[in-house]
From TrEMBL:
NCBIfam families: PRK12826.1-2. InterPro entries: KR_dom (IPR057326), NAD(P)-bd_dom_sf (IPR036291), SDR (IPR050259), SDR_fam (IPR002347). Belongs to the short-chain dehydrogenases/reductases (SDR) family. SMART domains: PKS_KR (SM00822). This is 3-oxoacyl-[acyl-carrier-protein] reductase. SUPFAM superfamilies: NAD(P)-binding Rossmann-fold domains. GO terms for molecular function: oxidoreductase activity. Transmembrane segments: none annotated. Residues 5-178 form the Ketoreductase domain. It comes from Microbacterium telephonicum. Keywords: Oxidoreductase.
Length: 236
């Protein structure tokens, strides 16, 4: 189904964010991406923004609104990792990851919600991770920031659910990216042994779920956590 709706994907210049942006373009959405550097995929509008800086986000939203129109679908995807065990983790290792992954989501959703409230329609899709609820050694900062997105989406649903706005969480597992490709083969094989599906996902498989959540078919789904992890995190 083709649509003219305006979508903004944060961190849409690489990895999962890029695949999501490509999928929205293919479905006919007017698609913008934020990036600190690099460009989004062909057919997208790339705007410069740092999700830790509210002023830069406001400028980016203003540019998208002038060029494409008010943002109707927001995909909060931008995130960072600074993995290390708790006893070695510095205050900055913790604060910078939480400020980007959770604080960045707060900033972009707050800015996007104004237009959604005016339109009485909106889709907020937060990209979390299987480790948000499953846990992962060496990722206390990252998994905490990703688990927090569940409470965020559910509180947002209670605030804005009656205004035609949904808020959902997509929790990917291991995805085929440059990062997983760089892992030693025995490490990859060990990970795959723990995944019931026996393989990593393609970024496009995550993108398909995200675009479905933005569609009219998902209008009555809100506050949900949808795992795209091949069964890795079942029950978490």
């Amino acid at each position: 189904m083709s649509t003219e709706r305006v979508v903004l994907v944060t961190g849409g210049n690489r990895g999962i964010g890029r695949a999501i942006a490509e999928r929205f373009v293919a479905a006919g959405y007017r698609t913008a991406v934020t990036a600190r550097s690099g460009e989004g995929p062909e057919g997208t509008l790339t705007v410069r923004a740092d999700v830790t800086d509210a002023a830069s986000l406001d400028a980016a939203f203003t540019e998208v609104e002038k060029t494409l129109g008010p943002v109707e679908v927001l995909v909060a995807n931008a995130g960072i990792t600074k993995d290390t065990l708790l006893l070695r983790m510095t205050e900055d290792d913790f604060d910078s990851v939480v400020s980007t992954n959770l604080g960045g989501t707060f900033r972009v959703v707050k800015r996007a919600s104004k237009g959604m409230l005016r339109a009485k329609w909106g889709r907020v899709i937060l990209i979390s991770s299987v480790v948000g609820l499953y846990g992962s050694a060496g990722q206390i900062n990252y998994s905490s920031s990703k688990a927090a997105l569940v409470g965020f989406a559910r509180s947002l649903t209670r605030e804005l659910g009656a205004r035609g706005i949904t808020a959902n969480v997509v929790a990917p597992g291991f995805i085929e990216t440059d990062m997983t490709a760089a892992l030693p083969e025995e490490t990859q094989a060990e990970y795959k042994r723990n995944i019931p599906a026996g393989r990593f996902a393609s970024a496009d498989e995550v993108a398909g779920v995200v675009t479905w959540l933005a569609s009219d078919d998902a209008a009555y789904i809100s506050g949900a956590v949808i795992p795209v992890d091949g069964g890795l995190g079942m029950g978490h």
